[in-house]
Amino acid sequence: MRMSLAQRVLLTWLFTLLFLIMLVLKLDEKAPWNWFLIFIPVWIFDTILLVMLIVKMAGRCKSGFDPRNGSQNIKKKAWYLVAMLLKLAFCLALCAKLQRFTTMKLAYVFIPLWALLLGGLVELGYNIFYLRRD
To answer: Are 88 and 46 in contact (CB under 8 A)?
Structure first.
């Protein structure tokens, strides 16, 4: 399953627009929806990305694949998978806090987001400084 760049941009724009419209309606108190319903476009988009990522990672398991050709590529895809799971954990914790399902402190809700940002910063530093030495 391959998507062109224009299709990916359009899909991202569409889901972001839908999420923002639903968020504004909820914040203006025009729609008395559950917070988990507000985040449905985000979760649908994340599910599409996770399925595409898992399919690409599973493609390495087919016969005739040389593992020496993409060791860096699999590390990058593993980081993408961890990042998606951290984002999912943050969204679920945030919705549970906003819906008052839990009495968790807000600082604990943001731990997955902070881990995601720290990992992104490490990845950026690695790509900038380590790869320039070669």
So the answer is: yes
Q: How far apart are CA 14 and CA 19, in angstroms?
A: 9
How far is it, in rounded angstroms, from Cα 39 to Cα 99? 12
Burial status of residue 92 (CB atoms within 10 A of its CB: 0-12, 13-18, 19 or more)? middle
Burial of 107 (0-12, 13-18, 19+ CB in 10 A): exposed
- Residue with the bigger pLDDT between 68 and 34: it is 34
pLDDT one-digit tens code per residue, 48-68: 889 888 888 887 776 666 666
Q: Which residue has the tokens 């996770």?
A: 50
pTM: 0.82
Q: What confidence tier does 128 reach under pLDDT thresholds 50, 70, 90?
A: confident
Tell me the DSSP string of 34-95: -HHHHTHHHHHHHHHHHHHHHHHHHGGGSTT--GGG-HHHHHHHHHHHHHHHHHHHHHHHHH
